[in-house]
Amino acid sequence: MNVFEGRWPAWAGDAGLVVLTFVPPLLSQPYVDTSGPAWASLLGFEAVGAVVLMLRRRLPATAFVAGFAALLAALAGSAGAGAKLSPLIFLPPAVLLYNLGSHCTNWARTVWAAGGAGVLTAAGLWVNRLTTESGDFQGGLDVLAALAPMPLAWVLGFAARTRQTLLAAAERRAADASRARALEAVHATQRERARIAGEMHDVVAHSLTLLVVHAETLRARGGELPHWARAQIDGLATAGRQSSGELRALLRMLRDPADAAPLQPVPGLGQLDGLLECHRAAGGTIEVQTETALQSLPGPVQLAGYRIVQEALVNARRHAPGAPVRLTLDDAAGELRCEVVNSRAARRATPGAGAGIGLVSMRERVGALGGELTAGPTNDGGFRVLATLPLEHADA
Asked: What pLDDT digit, counting tens, does each position of 66-91 carry?
């Protein structure tokens, strides 16, 4: 389907083509010959030609041969009656010949149509010679001169069809290349996921497992340790086991995103008490102000809030050891407001602690839910993290 047919209905295109093809001969005929035989031949040809033109797409070869036969019959009939037709009468056969080149993909039918046109031309000239006495109406070179440019119409139609075929092939190649690039990108992503999962398993998982083993060993010998050390060991073992479970789920998702079902419940603000106890067991102090029913919040908001509090507490212990922390949670104005503020460090932090990845992760989590994150130092030398998470459409 060409551009014209794609924008307009087929019947509208046919009607427009009939007007453009058959009206010019009617308009020019009064300047050539106004006799009755001339008008009868012209109108008869145009009646047949209009019907043939409607069939040009379904039967391009048959339509061309029928239209060409009607043309020769009109020329021979008018010449036998001593009448002349407008030269624009050759316009409809040119359109049919263009259609033959652009729609007929069967070379045998094309050759058959061309041979039939040649036979009809010879027969028409012979009939014209037999039925016309005046030399002015016996045809010959003038008819051949009018028919000589006709093959150019077929060439133009064939060129148009060839161009459409090349464009369609180029579009298919582009689509195939696009699909191949997308598939290669998927494979590259999967390979990178597998590589990252392998690296995390070899480096992080092994070290974390070893840490848990040592903690459990120390717990087994708890009678030899002071009371404060036993509490620290219990918190270390609990945090290690939780982190190991979450890391296994993460590695499973990295290796195969389609098998991303969690091995354990996704953490949320309902488990906030356990997170706070781990912070206190690690030697931190925290004041909590909660003005919302945490269990009723949407799941994505609970997960994001849990991770934000978790990362903020880890950063407070890392960069401001011994500093008191204040946690505030409320869901006013249709959004969860999560604020974690720590004061100045009570003792020197470990040099080079942290790489700033935690803040980036928090911003990504908050941004994915359409919220905002503000993080920066306070006037008293502490640090403040404020996240606002909209509750509307959070489950989408």
From this structure: 888 888 888 777 777 777 787 888 88
* Alpha-carbon gap, residue 43 to 46, rounded angstroms: 5
Token digits of residue 162: 């060839």
Distance CA 369, CA 361 (A): 13
Residue 79 near residue 133 (C-beta atoms within 8 A): no
* Beta pairing class for 335-342 and 325-330: antiparallel
pLDDT category, 290, cuts 50, 70, 90? confident
Q: Taking the complete model, does pTM exceed 0.70, yes or no?
A: no
Q: What is the DSSP string of 240-304?
A: HHHHHHHHHHHHHHHH-GGG---SSPPP-GGGHHHHHHHHHHTT--EEEEE-S-GGGS-HHHHHH
Q: Is the dihedral of CA 299, 303, 309, 313 positive or negative?
A: positive
The closest alpha carbon to 242, from 218, 219, 221, 262, belongs to 262
Q: How far is CA 346 from CA 155, 284, 311, 317, in A?
A: 90, 11, 20, 10
Nearest to 120 by CA among 163, 71, 84, 87: 71
The 10s digit of each residue's pLDDT in 141-161 is 566 666 777 788 788 888 888
CA distance 138 to 347: 118
Determine contact, residues 75/143, Cβ cutoff 8 Å.
yes
Rounded Cα–Cα distance for residues 276 and 290 (Å): 13
Residue 136 reports pLDDT greater than 60:
no
